[in-house]
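agent> Task received from the user: take the single chain below, predict its 3D structure, and emit structure tokens. No templates, no multimer pairing.
agent> Plan: (1) validate residues, (2) run structure prediction, (3) serialize to tokens, (4) report one or two observations.
agent> Step 1 OK, no nonstandard residues flagged.
tool_call: predict_structure(input=
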Amino acid sequence: MVAIDYVRCSYLGLDNHPHIVDGAIVAIEEYGALHWSCARTRLNFALIGALEERLSQLFRAHIITYSTVMIANMGALPLIASGHLTGAQKPVMVFDRLAHASLAFHKPVVADETKVETISHNDLDALERICRKHPLVAYVCDGVYSMGGCAPIPELLHLQERYGLFLYIDDAHGISIFGDRGEGFARSQMPDVLGERTIIAASLGKGFGASGGMLMFGTSRQEALFRRYSIPHAFSASPNVAAVGAAIASAEIHASGELAARQHQLAERITFFDERVRTGQHGAPLPIRMFRIGNELEAISVAEHLLDDGFYTSATFFPTVARGQAGIRICLTASHDTNDLDRLCQRISRYMGDG
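)
tool_result: status=success, residues=355
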């Protein structure tokens, strides 16, 4: 059976781009190896330094790359909690309740260093109350949430200006699809200089189309601290050679006119979908759409029917979403054919009772 994929997160359709595939192959052929099996702090290929320099220029930040975003988060959150980035003062770490599992997973480790609190999704009033109560607060959230929706970046920057709020934003789903250089949902809304109170994590997969993760820092001091004390950086290997070569090739695409063209194609498909199906994300410039069903077994059944119709979608249920909030997730990409997308919308409307 042939099915059209609406599951993967290659929002710009770059993951099978010939230039990116060639970049991976060229890197392997040049170095004669797939992986450097040594901690990167001891010895490494020059190619990883070239990638980090190119990304730093592209996204106007100091950048360190990692093999995955989760590993980047693992190294970052305990360091923030330790106070080494905030003048030896440990912040209260506040997590958004819907922060991705790759962030929430580290709460117990962070709690060994400092106080941890969790607030309702995008609850700025609760966050401000905590800021008023404590001299230093760090907020951990997603830029674009994997189940739809986004962080209120301008409002968070206002709290940062008013209270010195430290922001740690995982923008894995927002990278590449926003910004003139694909700097992402969060970074594209921030000043040219990121500053000392913001760190952004992002994926080199998903919209970026390669493999791995990265952290964006505002200062060279932060970068130096992470290169010295971040556990994944000090004791683990860097992304493999193919991933680095692919990421360099993707960075070249990001610096070209092709990026804007693909961003425009994605925006067209998001509008196309919204004109035919209304979801809770209707009108948002984000590529993730969720239509809620409620019952978990019914959501699985609808996903199976859609697959029988030739559309591979994600049934989402607890613990990915709250109990009784099961549904179907649709990931839209620039490479989806509008005729196929129209047929999908017709099927969804039928299951939603709209047609």
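agent> Step 4: summary for the user.
The longest helix spans residues 258-274.
agent> Done.
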